[in-house]
């Protein structure tokens, strides 16, 4: 079995410098995160607030924490003191709450708008039209302590590379269409263990990789 350190090294060798590696450590013990930390990794992604907060408390404070899962408005306050980037923002209501909690903590929180690109019905996210409307809404102008830095997408859970490519191309073209009017959009968060090379070919600047670094997740216990 290869080590976390070796996995990280291998992945970093295959991604360009301008692409941020978010090490997705959900369900993994603090000891695994520390191993990655000691290998130089500083950006970690979690999808449950309680778990992320517990790890934040235990681990070195120079880690950049990314919330990659769906966020309920009433949970924002728990991560506002420390979270760096929230990937799955999909409403004005959520943005307002993030701003409110960021102000309370005298911080700015980076946000990515989640775009619905998968065909599956269950996935969260905004349609292209709703994302454009949100970015242009007067209501977001007063939100002083959130910074919308880009878009995030999750492709359909499938082995069909053509399908995934089509979905990545969709978000890439939306991203490129929005950039001239919204120069603050610099990040495109697409790509996971199985499809990050494809995502990088489609313009990804942030890959969220879990199992290829830490091994398969076990949800059975
Ligand atoms: C779990 C998760 C990942 C990482 O998935 P892997 O296939 O293990 O790399 C990426 N993004 C999100 C939103 C996730 O929930």
From TrEMBL:
InterPro entries in the record, alphabetically? Ala_racemase_N, PLP-binding_barrel, PyrdxlP_homeostasis
Which residues are annotated as modified residue N6-(pyridoxal phosphate)lysine in the UniProt record? 26
The UniProt record lists the Alanine racemase N-terminal domain at 2-217
Q: Which UniProt keywords apply?
A: Pyridoxal phosphate
An example of a Pfam family matching this protein is Ala_racemase_N
Q: What does this protein do?
A: Pyridoxal 5'-phosphate (PLP)-binding protein, which is involved in PLP homeostasis.
Q: Which family does it belong to?
A: Belongs to the pyridoxal phosphate-binding protein YggS/PROSC family.
User: What is the name attached to this protein's record?
Assistant: Pyridoxal phosphate homeostasis protein
* UniProt source species: Aquimarina rubra
């Amino acid at each position: 079995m290869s080590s976390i350190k070796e996995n990280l090294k291998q992945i970093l060798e295959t991604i360009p410098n301008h692409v941020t590696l978010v090490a997705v450590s959900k369900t993994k013990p603090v000891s695994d995160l520390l191993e990655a930390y000691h290998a130089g990794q500083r950006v970690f992604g979690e999808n449950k607030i309680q778990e992320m907060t517990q790890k934040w408390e235990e681990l070195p404070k120079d880690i950049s924490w990314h919330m990659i899962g769906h966020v309920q408005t009433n949970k924002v306050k728990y991560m506002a003191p420390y979270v760096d980037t929230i990937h799955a923002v999909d409403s004005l209501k959520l943005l307002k709450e993030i701003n409110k909690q960021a102000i309370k903590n005298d911080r700015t929180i980076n946000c990515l708008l989640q775009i619905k690109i998968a065909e599956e019905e269950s996935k969260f996210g905004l349609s292209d039209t709703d994302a454009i409307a949100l970015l242009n809404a007067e209501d977001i102008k007063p939100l002083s302590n959130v910074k919308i830095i880009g878009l995030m997408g999750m492709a359909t859970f499938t082995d069909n590379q053509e399908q995934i490519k089509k979905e990545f191309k969709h978000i890439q073209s939306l991203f490129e269409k929005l950039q001239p009017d919204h120069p603050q959009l610099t990040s495109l968060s697409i790509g996971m263990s199985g499809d990050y090379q494809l995502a990088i070919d489609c313009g990804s600047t942030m890959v969220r990789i879990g199992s290829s670094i830490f091994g398969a997740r076990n949800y059975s216990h």
